[in-house]
Design a protein that fits this description.
This protein has about 325 residues and is mostly helical. It is built from 12 helices and no strands. The protein has a single domain, classed as Orthogonal Bundle (ABC transporter involved in vitamin B12 uptake, BtuC).
């Protein structure tokens, strides 16, 4: 037990260091006064970097937590936020907006807001569908299969739309799918923070029942754990957390699968409260590092997370044979 605070302390220190480095990464060299004095020439650039670093903190908190909940509930280390089709349906609604609003004169400053609203609307619709059908699926694996089918259907519809739309709309959609760590403004970050707090409320309600559920459904029910309420809490928490990040930052892939895997390597997988804390701290650190790499390389963050995530998942598969 004494080793756990040491691990958390080291991860927190590394996260703070990565946060500071992220603030100082970019074409312009900034000083400490640039972040405090509004009269400084680079004050606006400093504001962009603060928003970028804060957005990565929120993404590092939300996405690993969503993956952690899904992996614990489904007892599958490869389960992630994409398993319920949330990211795919969010992307589908964004595609609807981008492809069908091309002839509508919309001011540029409203474009990102409407894209975010479209993504959130897609996740809300899917969440309602999942809650509607979850009571019909007694076996957890059916929810996974349902999520895969929804993802496939959403992908097919997007491909169909891409075949007919003009090139500029297609380019705008592709850029959104890459993920953007530097596009969120302060008001969007504030809304994202509120959504993550709501997601954390359902997460907090889910972990204690998950501990009982780990000992078996029959054992959990003998201690008053309601499987239906647990399922609803997991769906709500994972949907809100992953969809809110997708709405404002675009789809960020594989982090929800990889970070919980690393956390189980660092500490006892059975201690779920400790695992949740580790997922938050390690998630923040990894997202800050990826943000720095993205800024230095000028590659979209989704490409970087994919190059990182795929080899890790392949190693997981090989290790588990």
């Amino acid at each position: 037990m004494k080793r756990f605070p040491v691990i958390v302390f080291l991860l927190v220190m590394c996260s703070i260091l990565a946060f500071v480095i992220n603030l100082n990464t970019g074409f312009a060299k900034l000083t400490f006064s640039d972040f405090l004095n509004s009269n400084k020439e680079n004050f606006q650039i400093a504001g962009f970097r603060i928003n970028r670093a804060l957005a990565m903190i929120l993404a590092g908190i939300a996405i690993p937590t969503s993956g952690f909940l899904l992996q614990e509930y489904f007892k599958n280390p490869l389960a992630g936020p994409d398993v319920l089709g949330i990211t795919s349906v969010s992307g589908l609604f964004v595609a609807f907006y981008i492809f069908f609003s091309q002839d509508i004169p919309i001011p540029d400053f409203l474009q990102n807001s409407f894209i975010s609203l479209s993504s959130i609307l897609g996740s809300v619709v899917l969440m309602l569908v999942l809650l509607l059908f979850s009571n019909r699926f007694r076996d957890k694996s059916f929810i996974i299969i349902f999520g895969f089918l929804i993802s496939a259907l959403a992908g097919a519809i997007v491909s169909f739309l891409q075949f007919y739309v003009e090139s500029q709309s297609l380019k705008n959609y592709i850029l959104w799918t890459f993920g953007a760590n530097n596009q969120a403004n302060f008001s969007q970050i504030s809304i994202l923070t509120i959504l993550i707090i709501i997601g954390f409320f359902f997460t907090f309600k889910s972990i204690k029942p998950l501990i009982g559920n780990a000992l078996g459904s029959a054992y959990a029910q003998s201690f008053g754990v309601s499987q239906s309420k647990l399922k609803i809490s997991i769906i709500l928490a994972s949907s809100i957390l992953s969809a809110s990040v997708t709405a404002f930052l675009g789809p960020i892939l594989f982090i929800g699968v990889v970070v919980p895997h690393f956390c189980r390597m660092l500490w006892n997988p059975a201690q779920l409260w400790h695992q949740w804390i580790l997922n938050i701290v390690l998630g923040i650190l990894i997202m800050q590092v990826f943000s720095i790499i993205s800024e230095l390389s000028q590659f979209p963050i989704n490409i970087i997370t994919t190059f990182f995530g795929i080899p890790v998942i392949l190693l997981m598969l090989i290790k588990k044979k």
